[in-house]
Amino acid sequence: ETASRLEKTPLKLRVYSSQLLGLDSDLVLHGGGNTSVKLRESNIFGEEEDILYVKGSGKNLATIDEKGFTPLRLYHMKKLAQLGNISDKMLVNEQQLAMINPEAPSPSVEALLHAIIPFSWIDHTHADAVVTLTNTPKGEKLIQDVYGERFIIIPYIMPGFKLARMVYEITQKVDWKKYEGMILLNHGIISFGAEALESYQRMIKAVTI
Questions:
Q1: What CA–CA distance (Å, rounded) separates 87 from 17?
Q2: Sheet with strand 34-42: strands edge to edge
Q3: Residue 153 and residue 183 in contact, taking contact as beta carbons nearer than 8 Å
Q4: pLDDT digit string, tens, across residues 4-15
Q5: Residue 58: its pLDDT value, please?
Q6: For position 84, what pLDDT does the model report?
Q7: Mean pLDDT across the chain, nearest whole number?
Q8: How far apart are CA 206 and CA 209, in angstroms?
Q9: Contact 12, 66 (CB under 8 A)
Q10: Could you tell me the CA-to-CA distances from 155 to 24, 51, 116, 120, 186 in Å, in that order?
Q11: How many Cβ atoms from other residues are within 10 Å of residue 128's Cβ?
């Protein structure tokens, strides 16, 4: 009922579904994880832009509000992923330049990863059930046994530009519609969807399995 009421205000809906995830300690221990939504908005010149609203760094999903999300120009962010290599310090600087609200919190270090995934709604958690499987020598095989071909599997690499670039390279010829999300080995799980409910249900279903 609450979600239905918020459908016409997608940022409020993003807050609501983020809080649902954040309140489940099996998904996001100590408020970790991050979420995002991509929206089309008009700027001061009346020009339409695609804006990525991503959880601000250090914000707690369980208590996050609209001001806890950082709006970034999606075009600028996606162009960054096309660069062969930049330092994480440079990535932080470029993300600051992509912000449309200088008073917003610093964007998550994984904002670039959210930018290159071609879905409007993205949920990323460090679910205990998933990490328990991935953090083993046979983690990749265990994940394949559980999920089959429904999730893209990404080898472990530190979050930041290198992770986003790896995902960018791995998924260049991927048919995204075949997948419900992504498993980041030794890290966590990402679900995505065209709608908030789709992404949320995929997350809950995957972790429950």
A1: 32
A2: 69-73, 48-55, 34-42, 121-125, 188-193, 181-184, 151-154
A3: yes
A4: 777 788 999 999
A5: 87
A6: 85
A7: 93
A8: 5
A9: yes
A10: 26, 28, 17, 24, 8
A11: 14
Q: Which residue has the tokens 């912000």?
A: 99
Q: What is the predicted pLDDT for the residue at 157?
A: 93
Residue pair 92/71 in contact (Cβ under 8 Å)? The answer is no
Q: What is the pLDDT of residue 6?
A: 79
- Res 108: pLDDT: 86
Strand 181-184 relative to strand 151-154, pairing: parallel
Low-confidence ranges of the chain (pLDDT < 50): none
Contact status, residue 197 vs residue 187, Cβ threshold 8 Å: no
User: With contact defined as beta carbons under 8 Å apart, do 167 and 118 qualify?
Assistant: no
Number of neighbouring beta carbons within 10 Å of residue 5: 11
Where residue 4 falls (left for φ over 0; alpha for ψ -120 to 50; beta otherwise) is: alpha
Check residue 206 and give its pLDDT: 96
Q: Which pair of tokens denotes residue 21?
A: 């995830």
CA dist 185 and 163 (Å) reads 11
